[in-house]
Amino acid sequence: EIKSKLVRKKFISTLVDEEYYNEEIVAGCINSKAGAYKVDWDSDSGLDTVTGMPDWQSIMTVPMTKAGRISAVLYLSVSIKTKEFDAGEYNYLKTLCDIFSRIY
Fold first, then answer.
1. Is the Cβ–Cβ distance between 93 and 75 less than 8 Å?
2. Residue 88 pLDDT more than 90?
3. Which tops the pLDDT comparison, 104 or 67?
4. CA atoms within 13 A on the CB side of 102
5. Count of CB atoms situated within 10 Å of the CB of 37
6. Closest to 94 in 3D by CA, of 29, 4, 40, 42
7. What CA–CA distance (Å, rounded) separates 37 from 61?
8. Which of 37, 43, 98, 92 is nearest to 72 (CA)?
9. In Å, what is the CA distance from 30 to each residue of 6, 20, 33, 73?
10. How much is the pTM?
11. Alpha-carbon distance 87 to 35, whole Å?
12. What are phi and psi of 61, to 5 degrees?
């Protein structure tokens, strides 16, 4: 059960109204208690205004667990034109989330 959502966008210092995210990816992260990094080929995330091609997103999810219970899921999304997440970035963020989840 998702109780609350906090959404931020790049270059905006305050929280924003809810943005689109792939609920199936978040549910998979919660059910498996494991994070992932991948390209979300299935979502309709709009079209690139210049090329007319779909604007696919690179997604990274990291569960934040404490005492074996998921307290939060970090969901990062960026256009694959800008960046594609890899294993090194996932491992770094997973380490940070493990540290923060023990403090929280």
1. no
2. yes
3. 67
4. 5
5. 20
6. 29
7. 6
8. 98
9. 17, 18, 5, 8
10. 0.84
11. 11
12. -120, 140
